[in-house]
């Protein structure tokens, strides 16, 4: 694996992914804030949750770049279209698998079966995170495709 390349382009792609997702939320295109959701897994303090979640989500995004790099290395090809394809798989896995499971392990999230309680105040995302808005799946998928395209376009194979 090309460590300098994955560190650099993993950082850049994570910045772009995080910026796109945050911009979509701030523009009212989606109500989902991944940093806030991740942060509230660790603390109930809303201000700390946002900052902690941002840092944790950024580290997770950077670590995912290593998975992409391993995949590029295993097929001996790094290209924007292949990165985009990996981004489709990555985004769909999050939307279809992780989001519906999130209430089962998130300590402050209500579930589809049980409504909000004093300790479980976050709304569950539901299938494809549709509870956070009809545009949320499209934005999430597009952001992950762009993440993969950046990695595929600029990562240099060993």
Description:
- The chain has 158 residues and is mostly helical.
- The protein is 66% helix and 0% strand.
- It has 5 helices and no strands.
- It has helices spanning 3-26, 34-39, 46-75, 80-105, 136-154.
- The termini are close together.
Write the layout of secondary structure elements.
Layout: H1 3-26, H2 34-39, H3 46-75, H4 80-105, H5 136-154
Q: What proportion of the residues form beta strands (DSSP E)?
A: under 5%
Low-confidence stretches: none
* Average pLDDT level: 92
Order of helices and strands: HHHHH
Radius of gyration: 16 Å
Shape: globular
Number of strands: 0
Largest sheet: none
How far from one another are the termini?
6 Å
Q: What characteristics describe this protein?
A:
mainly alpha; 5 helices; single chain; 158 residues; globular
Kindly summarize this structure in a few lines.
The chain is mostly helical and 158 residues long. Helix content is 66%, strand content 0%. Helix 1 (3-26) runs antiparallel to helix 5.
């Amino acid at each position: 694996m090309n460590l300098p390349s994955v560190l650099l382009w993993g950082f850049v792609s994570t910045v772009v992914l995080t910026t796109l997702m945050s911009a979509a939320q701030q523009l009212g295109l989606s109500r989902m804030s991944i940093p806030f959701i991740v942060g509230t897994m660790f603390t109930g303090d809303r201000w700390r949750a946002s900052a902690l979640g941002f840092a944790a989500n950024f580290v997770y995004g950077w670590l995912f770049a290593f998975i992409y790099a391993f995949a590029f290395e295993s097929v001996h090809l790094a290209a924007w279209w292949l990165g985009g394809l990996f981004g489709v798989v990555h985004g769909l896995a999050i939307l279809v698998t992780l989001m519906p499971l999130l209430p089962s392990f998130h300590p402050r999230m209500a579930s589809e079966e049980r409504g909000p309680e004093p300790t479980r105040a976050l709304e569950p995302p539901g299938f494809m995170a549709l509870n956070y808005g009809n545009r949320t799946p499209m934005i999430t998928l597009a952001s992950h495709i762009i993440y993969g395209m950046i990695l595929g376009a600029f990562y240099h194979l060993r």
